[in-house]
Design a protein that fits this description.
N-(1-d-carboxylethyl)-l-norvaline Dehydrogenase, domain 2, 2-enoyl-CoA Hydratase, Chain A, domain 1, binds (2S,3S)-3-hydroxy-2-methylbutanoyl-COA, eight-stranded mixed β-sheet
Length: 679
Amino acid sequence: MNSAISTERQGNVLIIVSDNPPVNALGQAVREGLQKGIEEAASDDSIEAIVIRCEGRTFFAGADITEFGKAPKGPSLPEVCDAIEASDKPVVAAIHGTALGGGCEVALACHYRVAVPSAKIGLPEVKLGLIPGAAGTQRLPRLVGAEAALPIVVIGDPISAKKAEHIGLLDKLVGENSLAEDAVEFVKRKIGQPVPRTSHGTANEDGVKDPQIFDNFRAKNGRKLRGFDAPNAAIEAVKAAGEMSFEDGVKKERELFTKLMTGTQSAAMRHYFFAERAANKIDDVPADTPLIPIKTVGIIGAGTMGGGIAMNFLSAGIKTVILEMKQEALDRGLGVIRKNYENTAKRGRMTTEQVEDAMGLLSGTLDYADLADCDLVIEAVYENMDVKKEVFAKLDSVVKQGAILASNTSYLNIDEIATATKRPEYVLGLHFFSPANIMKLLEIVRGDKTRDDVLATSMKLAKRIGKIAAVSGVCPGFIGNRMLSPRQQQANLLIMEGANYWDVDDVLLDFGFPMGPFQMGDLAGIDIGWHRDPSKVTTVREALCSVGRFGQKAGKGFYDYDEARNRTPSDEVKKIISDFAEKEGHKQRDISKEEIKERLLYPMVNEGAKILDEKMAQRASDIDVVWINGYGWPLYTGGPMFWADTVGLDNIVAGLEKHKLPVSDYLRKKAEAGEKFTR
Ligand code: T1G
């Protein structure tokens, strides 16, 4: 055996044990050890059954992603799986934690599978831009049927042990604390019986002859899968399991897998996998920095943001006090929170007990004194420096020493806000994105005096409330909004110069964003902040508002909308824009979608380069994490900085110069040196 894999005997049962922290990834040593363990069992007549299990927190959590792209060494995972299945002695997988990807495939190659109730099992390869590559797409449908296999392989979300048992993926749920013993007992009872092999037969033996299930699945999940290559390949692979022999199906899977593995989307999504985890690390803050215990959180402001922020903590089981200035505003805010939870329960995504548990942790007040014992207070008041400084001065005088005081500001200077307190080292920004209870991104804005334990506590807390966080320095717009600004500027300039506003939206939609700026404006409402004076027209938006084009809610904004809210470009708007442009002295011309794309996206890359140069972000991959989770940058391109690398920084510089747009020294230097941001 080797350090990762050991074997032990319990009577006539051989137990093969993997101990390969942190997640028992199926690296070379593990694969070799598994293969040797199966050989040991085969060559020893006193062994009549085999258990495969893992030490630590989980059963095999997949192939070792760090080996991808490197020359394969040792037996491949398909070879190991085939060796397990070929055993004439019964093999049972003893599952705990998360049996994912290759881990699930090892379990499928075993003759039986038992798991503890808390286990999860799945094939998340599509989330890495891949499909299972060790016959998972062929064994799973044969075991549970094509229809039950489709969501597991194509969407990639793990399922609970209970669900897995229900569909036949697991043979038995065993004791939460007696997995090893129960697995041995289970497999002993299988000795002498013919071993069931999941590679036998086809997926349609259970009568699922309806090819429609694949097209129906595609149609039902179209929106979620738009632009991704892997899900479609996954559907093709599952289909093959119903139409081909196991050998031919594996060949088909291998062909689809290899094409994806060598494609840009998978490289981008594997980049993102590590980027998301790297973002947790604050380079100059020691990993063992002691954390400040967060038992009670205070929120200032019960509006949309304050209420949404509060829900994150309530859902994580953290006591939360919301302060408002007036009873009516407080009551409304608390009511909205309850309503949101009740709607979630109606959709079956929460039980009514969970709603009451969350609401039971919530209290409201009009009195700052009630925040005195909070460990963290987050203000989500009006975006005005004077108002914020007043709030922080009040908090500083009321809240206990050692508590963290955070601002949810989306661009104001955290260092200036901190001057309103006598504890600047306990002040930072926690920038949530609206709707704050849904959007995953949290920008942690580090003041120049923010203490290490305040930062480390905030990062840990982000994970606890289910957010994906990245640290930003103090600059206007931090990371996300700072890069959004040049894109907005170009979008507005492009339509002044003659670009069709629907082309601007379509370029971003086709690139993979959920929608473009003008559609977004219609959705949010063009009249937000409008002065309500139709005679005063100084911007395109005011021109639209002056003719009642307030957006989707009015049935018309930049676009005209039908009852189903489908959008149609409007000639009236096109004329309003061109008249306005003429008045402003802009010459109008036809502008291609290629020029629109370069002028919208390249300046964002340039801004990202400046952010790195000024050390406002720790690393380029943090910028990718921000844009993928906060603004819908398509995951399958890896984020703005990874995408720029795939375009080539020299091409980005050339494009910016072609459109007479600024090129930062940092970007130019990297381009000239042939360097990349992210690899
Ligand atoms: N390979 C290598 N390292 C991995 C890894 C993996 N599969 N999974 C996690 N890690 C590292 C991770 O980088 C981090 O490292 C540490 O483990 C803890 O992870 C042939 C081709 C298992 C649910 O996609 O979903 O199998 O930062 O912070 O939040 O068909 O990790 O500490 O140095 O995420 O508790 C399929 C990916 C692979 C599962 C645990 N498997 N992993 O979550 O901890 S492709 C996956 C996860 C495949 C086969 C195909 C999660 C987790 P560090 P963590 P966590």
